[in-house]
Amino acid sequence: MKIRLVVALIGLAISFALTAFAQQTNTPDPQQRQELLALIKKFDEAISNNDASALAALFTKDAVFLVDEGPFYGRENIMKHFADLFGKLHFSNWLTTADEYSPHSIGTSGDEMWETGTYSGTIQGDKIGTLQLKGFYSAITVHEGNILKKRMLTSLSAAAPAATPSPTTTPSNQ
């Protein structure tokens, strides 16, 4: 009887220890989190300032940026994409929010990590007026020397809300 009780208590203690260990793996390293938040702040500022050069500088030379139109390979092509985009549209109030568990280390060196999160902002253009954008992103960031940069960024737009019927529209009575 006592052995069963001891075995049960040991099993219970192990389950608590495993639960605590599993929860700790989701907590990002505080230093990596601060580095990531600093990179995100620079990213948001570059987009809000419509500065393609400053934005491209946040990517590695061999980076990939994947959006609805397809992939853009390399820092130069990413810069050209944003320069073209900023020539047609004005971006403002850009806000990127990494999820609370980001970044996640890749490997043991701490030089590579991945992140996920959301973004939002306003775009204005002659042909589209003013639109609010929202979406999701995932990224792989790496250290180049002591500087954190994006190696891969995937951006997914959230679905636009359904159109609201005009108040002057009436259903047909057929």
Determine the structural class based on helices, strands and strand pairing.
alpha+beta
Cα distance spanning the termini? 80 Å
CATH class: Alpha Beta
CATH architecture heading: Roll
List segments where confidence is low: pLDDT < 50 over at least 5 consecutive residues: 16-24
- Radius of gyration, whole Å: 23 Å
Shape: globular
Order of helices and strands: HHHEEHEEEEE
Task: Look up the CATH topology.
Answer: Nuclear Transport Factor 2, Chain: A
| Helix count, DSSP H or I runs of 4 or more residues | 4
Share of residues in helices: 25-40%
Largest sheet: 7 strands, mixed
Number of domains: 1
Give the total of beta strands: 7
Assess the beta-strand content as a share of residues.
Answer: 35-45%
Mean pLDDT, nearest integer?
84
Which features would summarize this protein structure in a list?
7 strands; Nuclear Transport Factor 2, Chain: A; 4 helices; 174 residues; alpha+beta; seven-stranded mixed beta sheet
